[in-house]
Amino acid sequence: MNAPSAHDAQPDAVSNTAREDRPAPRLRDEDGGLQELILAKLDEDKAEDIVSIDLRGKSPMADTMIVASGRSHRHVGALADHLLRALKEAGMGRARVEGLPHCDWVLIDAGDVIVHLFRPEVRAFYNIEKIWSVESAHRGQAG
Questions:
Q1: Distances (CA, A) of 32 to 36, 113, 118
Q2: Residue 83 vs residues 43, 88, 112, 141: alpha-carbon distances, Å
Q3: What span, in angstroms and rounded, lies between the C-alpha atoms of 106 and 7?
Q4: pTM score, two decimals?
Q5: Burial letters for 60-84: b for 16+ Cβ neighbours within 10 Å, e otherwise?
Q6: What angle do CA 101, 138, 83 make, to 5 degrees?
Q7: Would you give the distance in Å from CA 129 to the centre of its chain?
Q8: Do the Cβ atoms of 67 and 123 come closer than 8 Å?
Q9: Which segments of 1-143 does DSSP mark as H helices, in order?
Q10: Dihedral sign, CA of 109, 115, 119, 120?
Q11: Which of 36, 67, 118, 129 is the least buried, fewest Cβ under 10 Å from its Cβ?
Q12: Spatial contact of 31 and 66, defined as CB atoms under 8 Å apart
């Protein structure tokens, strides 16, 4: 009988590529705690022009969209990193993230809450608050 190889010892190992193809379980925000956690963390980390948009009845993708700005690439990256750590520490570590390498626009899909973090110039260019018909002090400054 042959000794088991390292490959045989880890039959449940899955490559990162395969892991990315599986949908993450949706994080629920039934009591509003997820949204409150995100808003508190962004405020604590000095995010600017934080806007919360209620998507219930408008879109099936999430219940809430939060849009905020960081002062620079580094600030946007730090906001995203700190928010992901806070979600993980609260037991909600399955959030999906896009845009971290460049930090112009970082999207965090935390299930029932979607978070967009922008540099101010990028936020003014895309103006996603207008898409969802939300009044924002930021729109007034950009126009």
A1: 6, 10, 24
A2: 11, 9, 15, 26
A3: 37
A4: 0.72
A5: eebbbbbbbbbeeeebbbbbbeebb
A6: 40
A7: 16
A8: yes
A9: 6-9, 16-21, 33-44, 73-89, 120-126, 128-131, 137-142
A10: positive
A11: 36
A12: no
Amino acid type, 51: V
Classify residue 14 by burial, with Cβ atoms within 10 Å: 0-12, 13-18, 19+. Answer: exposed
Burial of residue 49 (CB within 10 Å: 0-12, 13-18, 19+) is middle
Measure the CA–CA gap between 40 and 4, rounded to whole angstroms: 50
Compute φ and ψ for 45, nearest 5 degrees: -90, 15
pLDDT in tens, 66-118: 999 999 999 999 999 999 999 999 888 788 999 988 999 999 999 899 999 99
Comparing 11-20, 25-34, 80-89, the range with the smallest average pLDDT is 11-20
User: In terms of C-beta distances under 8 Å and separation of at least 24 residues, what long-range contacts does 87-92 make, across chains too?
Assistant: 87/27, 87/37, 87/38, 90/37, 92/27, 92/34, 92/37
